[in-house]
Specification:
The structure holds two protein chains of two kinds. Chain A is of the alpha/beta class. Chain A is built from five helices and five strands. A five-stranded parallel sheet of chain A has the order 2-1-3-4-5, with helices on both faces. Chain B is mostly helical. Chain B has helices at residues 5-42, 46-65, 69-83, 93-117. The chains are: A alpha/beta, B mainly alpha.
Chain lengths: 130, 119
C-alpha cells in the first residue's frame, strides 16, 4: 500500500532563520503547505488549530522543548496520531534511539542540507507508512 | 503563474545568501555579548553562562546550515564545554579560559567567513 500524500507540515523552532530556511526548502517542489511556529505553548495551539499531516520539531527550545511538545501531543486524543520528526544537532545513535522511543518517526540531523531536506522528509514519511 | 522549481531554487539560494550576510552581522554582535557574559559568569552569574550556551547553540546550528561549517563546529565545541559542567555548577578559571579562547577563535573564523562572503 503506498503512503498517503504528504500535504501539510508545521515546523516548530525558536530560531527564525532556521524556520525560514526550512520553509523555503520544503516548499521547493510546490506540493507542501508549510507553516511555522516559534514554539512554546503557542505551538500546541497551532498544532491543534491546523492539524497538519506532519509536525517537525526542533529539540532544543527554551521553555517547552521538542520532546515535551511531543509528549503533550501524545497525551491529546486529537493530536496523538500526528507523526513527528525531530530536528536536532544531537543526532548520535543513542539520541536517535531515544527520540524514536518517544514515538518520533524519524530524526533529521542539524546542520541539514537545505536542498536535500524535502527528500529526507518524504523518505521518512514513506517509511513510516510502509 | 507558479514559479518553476528552478526559479524557486534560484530565489532560495539568493535568500540564503541574504541570511548568511545577516548571520555574519548578528554573530559579530553575539560574540561581543558572549565576552560580556563570560565576565559575568566568572563573577557567579549562572544566567550569563546559560546565555553563552544559547548563543553558541544558535551559532552552531544556523551557522553550519548557512555554510559556515568551521564556525559551527567551533561553536558546538563551546556549547559542549558548558554542557560538560555539572548541573548548576559555575565555571572555574580554567573553563573560563577555555571559553575565552573559543570566543577568540570564533571571532577569527567569523572574520575569515566575512571576507570569504564579501560581507
Amino acid at each position: 500500500m503506498s503512503a498517503p500524500a504528504l500535504r501539510s507540515v508545521l515546523y516548530v523552532d525558536d530560531d527564525a532563520d532556521i524556520r525560514e530556511i526550512v520553509q523555503m526548502s520544503l516548499s521547493l517542489d510546490g506540493q507542501l503547505d508549510v507553516n511555522l511556529s516559534a514554539g512554546g505553548e503557542r505551538a500546541l495551539l497551532e498544532i491543534r488549530d491546523q492539524r497538519p499531516d506532519l509536525v517537525m520539531l526542533d529539540v532544543m527550545m527554551p521553555g517547552l522543548d521538542g520532546p515535551s511538545i511531543l509528549a503533550r501531543m501524545r497525551a491529546d486524543e486529537a493530536l496523538k496520531h500526528i507523526p513527528v520528526i525531530f530536528m536536532t544537532a544531537k543526532a548520535n545513535p543513542s539520541e536517535v534511539a531515544r527520540f524514536r522511543g518517544l514515538s518520533a518517526i524519524g530524526v533529521i540531523a542539524k546542520p541539514f542540507d537545505p536542498m536535500a531536506l524535502g527528500s529526507q522528509v518524504k523518505a521518512l514519511w514513506k517509511s513510516h507508512h510502509e | 503563474m507558479n514559479d518553476t522549481r528552478e526559479q524557486k531554487l534560484a530565489a532560495a539560494r539568493a535568500r540564503m545568501a541574504e541570511l548568511a550576510a545577516k548571520f555574519i552581522e548578528r554573530t559579530q554582535r553575539d560574540l561581543g555579548t558572549m565576552r560580556a557574559d563570560l565576565a559575568k559568569a566568572g563573577a557567579g552569574d549562572a544566567g550569563a553562562l546559560a546565555e553563552i550556551r544559547h548563543l553558541a547553540h544558535r551559532m552552531a546550528g544556523t551557522g553550519a546550515t548557512l555554510g559556515f561549517e568551521a564556525l559551527g563546529v567551533r561553536a558546538a565545541g563551546t556549547e559542549a564545554i558548558i554542557d560538560a559542567l555539572p548541573d548548576g555548577a559555575l565555571p572555574d578559571s580554567r573553563v573560563i579560559e577555555r571559553i575565552a579562547a573559543d570566543i577568540g577563535a570564533l571571532e577569527t573564523q567569523l572574520a575569515a567567513d566575512a571576507r570569504r562572503t564579501g560581507t
